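Late entry, written up from scratch paper. The run itself happened at the end of the previous shift, but nothing got recorded in the book at the time, so transcribing now.
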Amino acid sequence: MNKLGLMQPNFFKVTHSYPSSIISCIHNAPPHGAAEVSRITSLVNESTTSRVLKDVHLSTQLLDGFLDLAEDNTSKDLETCGVLGAFLKEGTYYVTTLIIPKQDSTSSTVSQKKKCQAVNEEEIFAIQNEQSLFPVGWIHTHPSQSCFMSSVDLHTQYSYQVMVPEAVAIVMAPTDTSRSYGYFRLSDPDGMKIVRECQETGFHTHSEPLNGASIYEDCSNIYLNPNLRLEVFDLRH
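Output as recorded:
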């Protein structure tokens, strides 16, 4: 599809969509014969330290669609980030929107690690307001690194999770042969407390929780839903 991009202030067009023949943007029980929703199972033991969370449903097209949009940056060893927008229905979040904001990306140097920073964030907020979406997390690439959460990623995740406890950080690591993607969140309350009290910026180390828990963990409330339509707003062009 053509990349139309941002057209007018506070008026945005869908630049990509992944339609479903079953439903569009609203989830119902799939009809007989439709693909079933599948739960993401953790690659490690699920944490028992965090609170009970609402389920989050993602389109099965999200990961591959995002990697396609990030392909140019990935080939240059540059990170790409996107924001997840969802609606809430009967106690479950359904992610139907991916926003790719204007962003500044850097590659690794001797003194600096890769990072990606969204700019013109008011454009993100405008779409979320117009579509009545909850900011339930974000997705970004590690083009040549392993699948993990850096210290900068942890602070970014805190800014989402403090607003929406169910917020997820999706890391795409296409060159990591052991784990090419992950769904992560800060442990709560331990990881949230550590990051909230941290005053450092840039890449740095964090102390581990005194009780032996991890500062972040795999999500256990994520489901891949083939019955969701995913719309993409690519604001980079």
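The first helix runs from residue 62 to 75.
(Scratch paper discarded after transcription.)
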